[in-house]
Amino acid sequence: MRSPIAVTVLFLVLLIGASSAEAHGARVIWELRGDSVFVSAAFDDGMPMDSAQVTVFSGAAPSEPWLTGFTDDRGEFVFLPDRSEASNWDVQVRKAGHGDIVHLSLGSDAEYAGGGGGFSALQTVLMSACVVWGFIGTAFFFASRRKRG
Amino acid sequence: MRTLKAALFAALAMAVLLAVPGCGDADQAQEGSEDQTLGPEYGTLQFVANGEDFVREGFVSSDGWSITFRHLYVTISDLTAYQTDPPYDPHSHEEIVGEVAVELEGVHTVDLVPGEDGSATALVGILEEVPAGHYNAMSWTMVPAADGPSRGYSIYLDAQAEKGNQSYNVMLGFEDIYHYSAGEYVGDVRKGFVEPGETGELEMTFHLDHLFGDQELPEDSELNLMAMGFGPFAALMQEGTVEEDLGSLASKLSQADYEKLLAVLSTLGHTGEGHCSCVVR
Question: Does residue A138 belong to any structural domain of this protein?
């Protein structure tokens, strides 16, 4: 992971792993922090949406709340999605007539357990290229040693 | 040389193995639609419009005018519901592109003030035999009514404004055309799900507090700073009546107030508390 390509791939993963959405009067952003989803909500003027109503929906039963709660005094909310249940989640945050809903695509549980973390096709191709290039380099290394021997 | 061939073969084999997750991608794509498509079956989708308690019960404007509505007509056309994946973001200000799109034909004028049935929402129309799934985006255009009490206006309000010993009949008509593109409904319940053989609902919500402000909110709140209040309209009173439209307001209001009015009118349409992108024509 020290090669420039690997660092670039890591940067892309971090970049794509976070998403944001804004709405009239409200702005909700989210990101993965380890296994948990971190949600932060603020009004358009930057004031945190403290004590805002949060409703989490699982893609497995999207019309029924999977979890409800409230943001803290910083407008933040953290939850641990059950990835074995669904890969798609929606989080709605509302307060005083302002609100927004954001969509989270987390990848499947199997991919997550395997370290895939819901990589996109581009990410997969880049990582594959890195690994294959490593094997080719190894092959040339041993080939050159054999010639010298 | 044999070592080189073996190593290259191993690299090639590894490349093939790494390509296998492509199948995983297909699985993921299928999962991605788990809440989008419930099957090939069909159901019914009904469209409603809602003026919220502000229109149903009246409210006090940011500058202290008590406003009650006799009628608030909106005229809607090109009403289309979509199933989109990923969900539509109205802040992109792009046109909605959906895997499924269904349109309610015709032009529909509805009164957001409840009639005798007391229904909180006004029924705009019903579409039968629509593909089941989650309709998580919608668009509509507000156009001037061709006839009826709101003829010539896309939004027309008939209200009473009172403050102290002042009481005015208020008739305001807005003749611009507003095209709204909305994401998912945001509110107490999640809307837009059409189960096979059942009826789902989508709602257009109109926030009249954006126009007049809300005294229950702080004076320096974002909404009240954006709103007109009623004072600029009261200043146009003639014989107990304020009757204006955008054509007359353009010359009667100050330039700043008129521009503020045009800006705020484009923010009236929502889906629940969810924002819409609006193009004024």
Answer: no
Instruction: Using an 8 Å CB-CB cutoff, list chain B residues near A90.
Output: 184
Alpha carbons B35 and B33: distance in angstroms, whole number = 5
List the domain boundaries for chain B. Answer: 2-37, 42-280
Q: What is the CATH number of the domain that holds A58?
A: 2.60.40.10
B216–chain A Cβ distance below 8 A for any pair? no
CA B236 vs. chain centroid, Å, equals: 30
- Phi then psi for residue B39, to 5 deg, are 135, 180
Question: Is A113's Cβ below 8 Å from some Cβ in B?
Answer: no
Selecting from B18, B86, B272 the residue whose C-beta is nearest the C-beta of A103 gives B86
Alpha-carbon gap: B147 to the closest alpha carbon of chain A (Å): 33
Residue A144: predicted pLDDT: 73
Task: Kindly identify which residue of chain A lies nearest to residue B23, measuring between CA atoms.
Answer: A121
Q: What is the ipTM, given to two decimal places?
A: 0.76
pLDDT in tens, A75-104: 999 999 999 999 999 999 999 888 999 999
Q: What is the pLDDT of residues B159-197, one digit of tens each?
A: 999 999 999 999 999 999 999 999 999 999 999 999 999
